[in-house]
Amino acid sequence: MIFPDDFLWGGAVAANQCEGAYHEDGKGLDIQDVMPKGILSGPTAEPTPDNLKLKAIDFYHRYPEDIKLFAEMGFKVFRTSIAWSRIYPNGDDAEPNEEGLAFYDRLFDECRKYGIEPLVTISHYETPLHLAKAYNGWANHALIGFYERYVRTLFERYRGKVKYWLTFNEINSVLHQPLLSGGIMTPREKLSLTDLYQACHHEFVASALATKLAHEMMPEAKVGCMILAMPIYPLTPAPDDMIAVMQANHFNDFFGDMHVRGRYPGYMKRYFRENGIEIRMTPEEELLLRENTVDFVSFSYYVSICEGRGGENGGGNILGGKKNPYLKASEWGWQIDPQGLRYTLNRFYDRWQKPLFIVENGLGARDVLVDDGKGGRTVEDDYRIAYLNDHLVQVGEAIADGVPVMGYTTWGCIDLVSASTAQMSKRYGFIYVDRNDDGTGTLARYPKKSFYWYRDVIASNGAAL
Ligand code: BGP
């Protein structure tokens, strides 16, 4: 496998799933602090002790140890998010919280100490709770202004330290998980299609504003959108099924089209027309979208699904999907399809002609800690090595196909709290964290077998695959 010399190998996490310290140093509450069951339940009135994210893996205090381990693996890049409510505790405050800003200074400095480039998600499923409660999150136009103030603060503070920025994690998920993704308190079934697409519009405008500001304030910055990607295959060769696939793709491609082409595509205008959806937008917003398109497209990749008549539900991730009889699935029913990653890279590059960055990929599994025979403990996670190896081989194929791939960050490079289940037992890491679903555990870190495998892959720039 031949990877470019400057290929950005690394790993990814999100603040709410690893930091903990949910009300330290002036942090306000965010929606995750009241979502103890992940996407499986609605918000609680206030943080409850069963919410593992309140402490998570205590990355807030243990980050020097963790970054050191990432450096041992040879990471070139580390993707994390900034918790919005550490910077603006309520989201609509007039002044930022200095202690929150100082934390990320320390974190980015620690990365830079080892030559690790930070890749920052500005908003990763962690809308400040006050913005959710008082404004109904991204359903409200006012969020654009609060987000703008927040990103301006970030860019002023971290220019020179952070070059790569992502505006919204898995932006297309807002259609499916409005609370998790957009801080929208109104339950999904009570939201009209107009409400949902209006929220998308607000995020598009905010994303374009962030891109504009980044380019003005940090000439060397690269800004990307971030999409939950999944190839969709027809259940049969029936032309009807192929059209169903095309239409299903539109609902995800729409988000990339808005960021790369900067205008509403014809297929969405038709959908809006036929479903009585009317988006309020100003000519200034339309111009902003057109003039501030992204530098690269990033995406998460875990599964592929099927579309068409019949079929059985249950093959997808948080977006849902139909089963593919040719694929095996993880314990949580997420279908495993390494070739789908090559296909996705090719399809996205054909469509957008922008550099691509795989910022999430990995296998959630129940790991078992065992003696390593040398007095320590480890996890023999050959299944994870196989998953990642198979996917990276397909990344290599896509690069050979001529697709410019900037880098690859495995999801949950250290075990963290799962977004969908809100539990620890769905683990992705190269590093095991001793914490259990009931909250017990020492929080000690143990490199797994995959830790050494990834170290060799990076050291050989992919030749070891
Ligand atoms: C993506 C999210 C992540 C992450 C990952 C794995 O949707 O961007 O935050 O958690 O999926 O999902 P899970 O934790 O549900 O297995």
Structure overview:
Its EC number is 3.2.1.86. InterPro entries: GH, GH_1_N_CS, Glyco_hydro_1, Glyco_hydro_1_AS. The active site is at residue 360. Keywords: Glycosidase, Hydrolase. It holds the Pfam family Glyco_hydro_1. The protein is of the alpha/beta class. The protein has a single domain, classed as TIM Barrel (Alpha-Beta Barrel). Helix content is 38%, strand content 13%. It has 14 helices and 14 strands. It has helices at 15-18, 59-73, 84-87, 98-113, 129-135, 142-158, 178-182, 193-217, 239-260, 266-274, 283-291, 338-352, 382-400, 449-459, and strands at 8-12, 77-81, 117-121, 164-166, 222-229, 232-234, 296-301, 305-307, 356-360, 370-371, 377-378, 405-411, 431-433, 445-447. Strands 1-2-3-4-5-7-9-12 form an eight-stranded parallel beta barrel, surrounded by five helices. A hairpin with a 5-residue loop joins strand 10 and strand 11. Helix 2 (59-73) packs parallel to helix 4 (98-113) and helix 6 runs parallel beside helix 8 (193-217). The longest helix is centred in the middle third of the chain and has 25 residues, at 193-217. It binds 6-O-phosphono-beta-D-galactopyranose (BGP). 6-O-phosphono-beta-D-galactopyranose is lined by residues 14, 169-170, 300, 318, 360, 364, 411, 418-420, 426.
